[in-house]
Design brief:
Layout (H helix, E strand, L loop, with lengths): L22 H6 L6 H8 L1 H9 L10 E6 L2 E6 L2 E2 L1 H14 L3 E6 L5 E5 H17 L7 E5 L5 H12 L2 E4 L6 H11 L3 E5 L2 E3 L2 E3 L1 H11 L5 E5 L13 E3 H4 L12 E2 L3 E7 L7 E6 L1 H14 L8 E4 L6 H13 L3 E5 L10 H9 L3 E4 L1 H10 L2 H4 L8 E5 L5 H11 L6 E4 L33 E4 L11 E6 L9 E2 L3 H8 L8 E9 L5 E6 L3 E4 L2 E4 H9 L4 E11 L3 E10 L9 H12 L8 E4 L13 H8 L13 H22 L2
Parallel strand pairs: 4-17, 6-7, 6-8, 7-14, 8-11, 11-12, 16-17, 16-18, 18-19, 19-20, 29-30
Antiparallel strand pairs: 1-2, 3-13, 4-5, 9-10, 14-15, 15-23, 21-22, 22-24, 24-25, 26-27, 28-29
Helix pairs in contact: 2-3, 4-5, 4-11, 5-6, 7-8, 10-11, 13-15
The protein binds 5'-O-[(S)-ethoxy(hydroxy)phosphoryl]adenosine.
5'-O-[(S)-ethoxy(hydroxy)phosphoryl]adenosine (WTA) binds next to helix 11, strand 20, strand 24 and strand 25.
Length: 661
């Protein structure tokens, strides 16, 4: 862990700036009364049970909570099925004709799926998985682009009690292998390819490479998306369109225990090995349904909701698939890049569908700012009534731009803080209640108890900064790290004791006691809202034959929040050649995925080290961000460090004068 939180937000001078929710929004909002927060705080278990009561249970729970720190079980003894809650109960209540997803492919092809159609497709896909031998408790990896079959596959797993592990389609074959092996997934669902910025991405090829490197997978279901020719291995690979449409749509949802695992989703930790964050059925669905309803103020009969994330990340799991469907809302689902074929793709879609809610990430907002306000201005965005952001701290400037140019000055903005581990939104304004402050997530969601503490775990006073903790279990919390409960204890519950969840984020309380998030305090970078561990990138680099040693740091970046900077020393027999830097960047993309490709690679004579040989990471961040180095004479190699800093400064100068890639 680092030495302390380092503010990523340069200035909190905007603390006094507040934006009240518009009166007509308040008049109709689910939450208008601060009493909700008070009530949930006093009786947080009762509040949790009340939210769970909005779901359809197949058997009632006996106890709301069993809490043996750091392990929680919620709604103990209760039974339910997630697919039943997201689909069947709405169809049975007469809403089968309502559109669940308006899907749009990047090339412009489109499909609308009603709740009845989605229910039937999920049931057929579930029967197909059963026909392939997938059973309750089995793990199934899903490696798909943003096509309707992605939520279908997840819900089909949920319907039969199989555990899904979705791997973002931008991850490499090797990342897929690591996740398949860690979870022991015998099933894989993938596609021939996908579209990204007008290009065809050969996904099956990557899946084939992965399956060649592991013998864990014995069955693979392949969705035809691009129509490009792919290899199909007899006995193992099956086309979705051959197998699924011929199945029966009769597939009774499996009654699952509240504490049965619903899914595993891998996220970067502070070591090279990603953590399989494990979520269960009853508590997770309760929390995502409640947060989706109250934070996005969902009105299923009127709203057209759009979370523009990828389902490969937790945001898509909770707020494209489970939260919105549990609330029977109509959503947009979009396959491609936000700026393809033109920078106004999102705005054109919002206008055409009369979308009412948009949820996206600060990096996306900053890139819209760069493209210019004329793009949203060219479209009628008056249908929007609420905006959200997630994934990284939002700088007040981007917040104000979003408010003005997308929200027309009238839409409340919810800046939602949460993590893969928390399953659902934990800190957020409530849109009909909170007077929002640009750049602050501000308040706990009802029932949640965030506490900012100092190094000793003592709560800090308003005006002070420290570490963000959550000091009470919540229904949607992770239950463990798949296959490694000790790591679960060590990572989250050891820093401040067994009853205090340590989030790994720095935070500050302002004078009003509102919470401002300040970025990660561990060795995890946040690039465009995606968590990437420095160690993971370092392992990928040293895996290259020319590399002796590598150290990686995140530097502040105006667009992506952070950018990855790598410092590399070469092996004795390696030649410093002109194309090596590009080759190393490509190597990282190949090992992990393009999202982890370093923005800069500096070949260094040596890395800054203490006399005991430990790499000084904080110094690397200083070098990466071009700060003056303090006293380096106590290091093992001060001259090499000064030289490294000089080289990095020169490159930064050429970058800012526009000579970068
Ligand atoms: C960061 C994404 C500031 C934070 C849902 C957290 C945020 C990590 C915010 C989790 C926000 C997420 N303000 N920082 N509103 N939302 N973060 O697991 O550092 O991909 O720990 O979950 O993103 O990333 P993850």
């Amino acid at each position: 862990m680092g030495t302390g939180p380092e503010p990523a937000i340069a200035s909190l001078a905007t603390e006094d700036e507040r934006v009240a929710p518009p009166e007509d929004f308040v008049a109709d909002a689910h939450v208008r009364d601060a009493d909700v927060l008070r009530r949930a705080d006093e009786d947080w278990q009762g509040w949790g049970a009340e939210q769970a009561g909005n779901l359809r249970w197949l058997a009632p729970w006996q106890r709301v909570l069993d809490w043996t720190p750091p392990h929680a079980q919620w709604f103990v003894g209760g039974q339910l099925n997630v697919a039943d809650n997201c689909l069947d109960r709405h169809v049975e209540a007469g809403h089968g004709e309502q559109v669940a997803f308006h899907w749009e492919g990047e090339p412009g092809d489109a499909r609308a799926l009603t709740y009845a159609e989605l229910r039937d497709e999920v049931a057929r896909c579930a029967n197909a998985l059963r026909a392939l031998g997938v059973r309750r408790g089995d793990r199934v990896n899903i490696y798909l682009p943003m096509v309707p079959e992605l939520p279908v596959a997840m819900l089909a797993c949920a319907r039969i009690g199989a555990i899904h592990s979705v791997v973002f389609a931008g991850f490499s074959a090797q990342s897929l292998v690591d996740r398949i092996e860690d979870a022991g997934s015998r099933g894989l669902i993938t596609a021939d390819g996908s579209y990204r910025k007008g290009r065809v991405v050969p996904l099956k090829e990557a899946a084939d490479e992965a399956m060649a490197r592991t013998d864990v997978v014995d069955t693979c279901l392949v969705v035809r998306r691009t129509g490009e020719p792919v290899a199909m291995q007899e006995g193992r690979d099956h086309w979705y369109h051959d197998l699924v449409p011929t199945q029966s749509a009769d597939c009774p949802p499996e009654p699952m225990d509240a504490e049965d695992v619903l899914f595993i989703l891998y996220t970067s930790g502070t070591t090279g090995k990603p953590k399989g964050i494990t979520h269960t059925t009853g508590g997770y669905l309760t929390q995502v349904a409640a947060t989706a309803r109250l934070v996005f103020d969902l009105k299923p009969d009127h709203d057209v909701y759009w979370c523009a994330a990828d389902i490969g990340w937790v945001t898509g799991h909770s707020y494209i698939v489970y939260g919105p469907l549990a609330n029977r809302v109509t959503s947009l689902l979009y396959e491609g890049a936000p700026d393809h074929p033109a920078p106004d793709r999102l705005w054109e879609m919002i206008a055409r569908h009369r979308a009412t809610i948009l949820y996206t990430a600060p990096t996306a907002i900053r890139s819209f700012m760069r493209a210019g306000p004329e793009h949203p201005a060219a479209h009628d965005l008056s249908s929007l009534r609420l905006l959200g952001t997630v994934g990284e701290p939002i700088n007040p400037e981007a917040w104000r731009w979003y408010h003005r140019h997308i929200g027309g000055g009238r839409c409340p903005i919810v800046d939602t803080w949460w993590q893969t581990e928390t399953g659902a939104i934990m800190i957020t304004p409530l849109p009909g209640l909170t007077h929002t402050k640009p750049g602050a997530a501000q308040q706990p969601f009802p029932g949640i108890k965030p506490v900012v503490v100092d190094n000793e775990g003592t709560p800090v006073e308003p005006g002070q900064g420290g570490y963000l903790t959550l000091q009470r279990p919540w229904p949607g919390m992770l239950r463990t790290i798949w296959g490694d409960d000790q790591r679960y204890r060590d990572t989250y519950w050891s820093r401040f004791g067994e009853e205090v969840y340590f989030a790994g984020d720095g935070a500050k309380l302002d004078a009003d006691g509102d919470i401002w998030l300040l970025g990660r305090v561990d060795e995890v970078m946040n690039v465009s809202g995606h968590r990437i561990s420095t160690t993971e990138v370092e392992s990928a680099l040293v895996d290259h034959p020319s590399v002796a040693e590598a150290a990686v740091a995140g530097r502040a970046d105006a667009l992506t929040g952070q950018a990855i900077v790598a410092f590399v020393t070469l092996a004795h027999d390696a030649q410093e050649r002109s194309d090596l830097v590009d080759e190393l960047r490509a190597h990282v993309a190949d090992r992990i995925g393009k999202l982890a490709r370093p923005a800069e690679v500096h070949l260094a004579p040596d890395l800054p080290k203490t006399r005991s040989g430990k790499i000084m990471r904080r110094l690397l961040t200083d070098i990466a961000e071009g700060r003056e180095l303090g006293d380096v004479t106590t290091l093992a190699n001060p001259d090499a460090v000064r030289e490294l800093a000089e080289r990095a400064r020169q490159e930064a100068t050429s970058r800012s004068s526009g000579n970068s890639e």
